[in-house]
Amino acid sequence: MKKVVDTNWLEQRLDDPELLILDASQSTSVNKQENAIQGKYIPGAITFNLKEFSDQYSELPNTLPSPEYFERKCRELGINGTSKIVVYDNAGIYWSPRVWWMFRVMGHEEIAVLNGGLPAWIKENRATVESPSQADRPGNFKTNFNKELVKSIQDINQNLTSQSFHVVDARSKGRFDGAAPEPREGLKSGHIPDSSNIPHEDVLNDGYFKSSDELKELFKHTNLDEPLAFSCGSGLTACIVSLAHSLISDKISPVYDGSWTEWAQSGGPINTKEA
């Protein structure tokens, strides 16, 4: 299964009994498209609430839950081990790559992100419904945790010395440079030493992933065979850039789950453009 599929691909397979569509839309406004398409769903889509699929006891915003918890929540949604999953969101490409990454971490490879998301589906006048579907029976989904796709703060700290992988930060240039404030009050901006910056907006074009040639140009200063790890503010937009990178490198690189929120609170070294 491809990592990213288009609206034509999905529409042709809506009747596939193994296909399971997840709506990862959130109410938080990202790009002002969301309000215009509230109350619209792709037929058969089941709501996937990212907050419910996060560690409920973590002080960080979007922490990956335990495999056991993830497995139980997936079964409640009727997800099976054989399910072919397509996930989309109401911002085009924003929330859905995080869901894609979580499933890959949990060992499920048959998952793709819908390029353009719900805005593209609606713009093309494809059929929608007014409410999400519900699972008619529990699923049999089973996790197989892939620790290679997750970086911890300990990994990042050790890497300051070992330099065994390169960190790519998906936040805005201003936040990365330390020139713009962080959206979370009291959090200092700047970046992890020796990291580089590819803002998540740069891999997208109007809610779609850019072409392979355009993505290769963005990553031209990064050896595609070099071990990478992706970071951002809270582990969300890092997944967008990780997915974009996987489209041109044919491998999936890990995400630092705690990302800048954890790092800036930890007392670890912080660099700015002037540093």
TrEMBL record:
Locate the compositionally biased regions of type Basic and acidic residues.
175-188
Q: Which residues form the Rhodanese domain?
A: 15-130, 161-272
Known InterPro entries for this protein?
A: Rhodanese-like_dom, Rhodanese-like_dom_sf, TST/MPST-like
Q: Which domain of life is it from?
A: Bacteria
Region annotation (Disordered) ranges: 175-200
Give the CDD domains listed for this entry: TST_Repeat_1, TST_Repeat_2
Checking SUPFAM superfamilies in the record gives: Rhodanese/Cell cycle control phosphatase
Write out the entry's keywords from A to Z.
Pyruvate, Repeat, Transferase
Q: Does the keyword Cell division apply?
A: no
List, in alphabetical order, the Gene Ontology terms for molecular function in this entry. thiosulfate-cyanide sulfurtransferase activity
Q: What PANTHER family does this protein map onto? A: SULFURTRANSFERASE (PTHR11364:SF27), THIOSULFATE SULFERTANSFERASE (PTHR11364)
Protein name, as recorded: Thiosulfate/3-mercaptopyruvate sulfurtransferase
Taxonomic source organism: Ekhidna lutea
